[in-house]
Each structure stands twice: as C-alpha cells, then as structure tokens.
C-alpha cells in the first residue's frame, strides 16, 4: 500500500508597519490573523494549491482572497507538517508585507485582526502557527 500524498497548501505571515498612534511599546510589525468560522480558529492566511499552481502563487492568492490585501512577498519562512481530517498536510509560508487592500468579511473568513507579535502569538489557535511569528521576526531582523 502506498503512502497517502500530503495535501499541499501555502500561505503568508502577513505583516505591516505599526499604524500611526500605536502604543510606544508596540512599534511593529503588526501581524494579520484571520478567523475562520468553519473551524472557529485564528490563523495565518493560507489555502490549498490549485492544479498547476506554484506554492508562492497560491500563497499570494490566498492572502488576497482571505484578507483583501495585496502584498509583497519576502523570505520563505517554513513548511509546517501536520494531519488534517485524517490526511497529512504540508503548508509552506512566506513573510509578506501588506501593501494595499481592504478586508471584506465572507463565509470563509469572517474577522481579521492586526496585532503586535506578542498579542498575535496569544491569539493564534494552533501552537505551530505561533512558531511562524518567531520566524517572521527573525527574517525581519536579518534584513535590518
């Protein structure tokens, strides 16, 4: 019996600079989290690849679909492996800076939050997603 091939998905840890008037202790970055009512969870924007779609193209498409924001991709962060609905799943993430856009709630994502890293970590449902916040911060510090 051959092993089940993993479901492939991609996403971004979407971030932006701190908004004007942000508290002095939270200069940025602010990280975007999405709430998915189907799972009642908070996560980074992500989704399954379409046929013949590259990982990066899928990640950027999912960010736009789930958040309404365009973004500029940055460094590759990590590929997370876990089981979902009885199948192995692997999700590859990039750091991505939000550029333009406006969030509109929909059936897939009904809420969106922009939070400083410590609050983003606390809000994320899955511990594996919290590791991506650290990977984002390390990638941003490496480019300073």
- Mean pLDDT value: 93
Percent helix, as a range, is 25-40%
Distance between the termini: 50 Å
CATH class: Alpha Beta
> Gyration radius, to the nearest Å?
15 Å
Q: What is the name of the CATH architecture?
A: Alpha-Beta Complex
Low-confidence stretches: none
Overall number of strands: 7
Biggest β-sheet: count, sense, barrel? 7 strands, mixed
Global shape? globular
CATH H level, superfamily name: Nucleoside Triphosphate Pyrophosphohydrolase
Structurally, the number of domains stands at 1
The number of distinct helices, counting runs of at least 4 residues, comes to 3
Structural class: alpha+beta
Compressed to H and E, one letter per element, the order equals EEEEHEEEHH
Explain what you see.
- The protein is of the alpha+beta class and 144 residues long.
- The model has no long low-confidence stretch (mean pLDDT 93).
- Helix 2 packs antiparallel against helix 3.
- The relative contact order is 0.26.
- It starts with 6 loop residues before the first strand and ends with a helix.
- The chain is 25% helix and 41% strand.
- It has a single domain, classed as Alpha-Beta Complex (Nucleoside Triphosphate Pyrophosphohydrolase).
């Amino acid at each position: 019996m051959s092993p089940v091939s993993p479901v492939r998905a991609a996403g971004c840890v979407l971030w932006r600079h701190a908004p004007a008037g942000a508290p002095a202790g939270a200069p940025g970055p602010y990280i975007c989290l999405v709430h998915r009512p189907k799972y009642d969870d908070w996560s980074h924007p992500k989704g399954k690849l379409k046929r013949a779609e590259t990982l990066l193209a899928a990640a950027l498409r999912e960010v736009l679909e789930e958040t309404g924001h365009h973004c500029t991709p940055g460094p590759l962060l990590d590929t997370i492996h876990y089981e979902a609905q009885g199948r192995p799943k692997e999700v590859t993430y990039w750091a991505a800076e939000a550029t333009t856009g406006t969030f509109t709630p929909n059936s897939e994502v009904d809420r969106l939050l922009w939070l400083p890293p410590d609050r983003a970590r606390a809000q994320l449902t899955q511990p594996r997603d919290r590791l991506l916040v650290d990977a984002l911060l390390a990638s941003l510090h490496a480019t300073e």
